[in-house]
Amino acid sequence: MKLTTGPGRVEALAEEAVVAACTLADAADPSRWSAGAVEDVDAALEVLAGALAQLEPECAEILSVVPVAAAAVVERAHQAAAGASESAGGRATTVTSAALRQALAARGLSQST
After folding, report:
1. Radius of gyration of the chain (CA)
2. What is the pTM of this model?
């Protein structure tokens, strides 16, 4: 979705995004997340990262880990929703976590968990 914006409107839209994110964070607890809600937040993160990535090539490189990280969270949410067995969930999480660690390391970043 592309919105037409005039000068100064970016700041207002960014502020609206922060307010919406804070409202979501205040309302969310582990028991209230559905796989669909996780997918929606994943999409929002990717859109916001894509917007910031337009600032300069270095920003794009730094933010390129966002889709990998968000995909890992979506995968975990789907596993939980499907009631995946602990052993199968552990294997998938390990693979995803390794991919995330590799993407972060390639950009000189570290995972803070």
Report:
1. 16
2. 0.66
